[in-house]
Specification:
With about 325 residues, the chain is of the alpha/beta class. It has one domain: Ribonucleoside hydrolase-like (Inosine-uridine Nucleoside N-ribohydrolase, Chain A), CATH 3.90.245.10. Strands 4-3-2-1-5-6-7-13-10 form a 9-stranded mixed β-sheet, with helices on both faces. The chain has a two-stranded antiparallel ribbon with strand order 8-9. Strands 11-12 form a two-stranded antiparallel ribbon. Helix 2 links the parallel strand 2 and strand 3. Helix 1 runs antiparallel to helix 10, helix 1 packs parallel to helix 11 and helix 9 packs parallel to helix 12. The two termini are about 30 Å apart. The chain binds beta-D-ribofuranose (BDR) and calcium ion. The site of beta-D-ribofuranose has 15 residues, from helix 1 and helix 6.
Amino acid sequence: MGPRKIIIDCDPGQDDAVALFLALAAPDELDVLGITTVAGNVPLELTQRNARMMCDIAGRTDVPVYAGCKEPLVLNAITAEYIHGATGIDGVDVFEPETPLQDEHAVDFIIETLRAAEEGTVTLVPTGPMTNIAAAINRDPSVLDAVDRIVSMGGAMREGGNRSPSAEFNVLVDPHAAEIVYQCGKPVTAMGLDVTHQVLSTRERVGRIREVGNAVATATADMLSFFHRYDTKKYGSEGAPLHDPCTVAWLLCPGLFASKACNLSVETQSELTMGHTAVDFWHVTDRPHNVEWAYEVDADGFYELLVEKLAVFGD
Ligand code: BDR
Ligand code: CA
């Protein structure tokens, strides 16, 4: 069996960027078929540029990068420059990447790749609003035949929301898309704030990443040094949650996480609680289990994995 085929659908974002590095660091385990980008943390013109920059930094200008949806399915776009900075990846200097932007729309790429793939052979890894993936499913639900699993970052149960009192950012931005993805009938591993708030990028951990010394590790440390500012003030914690790399860490080392089969439904009606993920953790309803809800992670093990993988990029 070769490496697992994955499509990363993202909105970089410092933490999306680290997720990309982690995936590109593991070619024996993960075959990144493409990186699709979506509007989220910052507008689409920046998320696609940022994803291409990360490919350059990782020395992987061969990975195809696609731009996708500029707007959520139903609602107006919301961005998060107040966390990620005006560029989305503040902490590193912006440059025009060599990695080209593919002509094809991200949704077309997802559909064509899945149509061409054998049954159950491709894993989708959304780390931003799930607009692109939901649009692909809406246009041709049969593409799901090729999907083995979806490993998503989004939602919150015990943690409450980070962008509204009830909702996590990715689901709040496009709750209608998230609901389509969670209810699509394929296995979903859901990384919500309950676990991502356990993997804090403390000064000591960022220091260990910086000590690795190569360009990818240095860019990671530089981005995390910026990224932690807002959240450490907000939560009074030492270091910010490193959300998106939890998805790739689960693919590489699922034993780091504890999860439970649950029903998850997204609120798409209420103005007050829009984007809330109602996770039936205690099985108090008969609603079918549609996600593996991650609720615990070995944070030290996660950072050991990250440091080990970043080191493979060499000097
Ligand atoms: C999620 O929202 C974004 O700010 C991060 O990139 C992450 O995907 C966390 O709520
Ligand atoms: Ca993200």
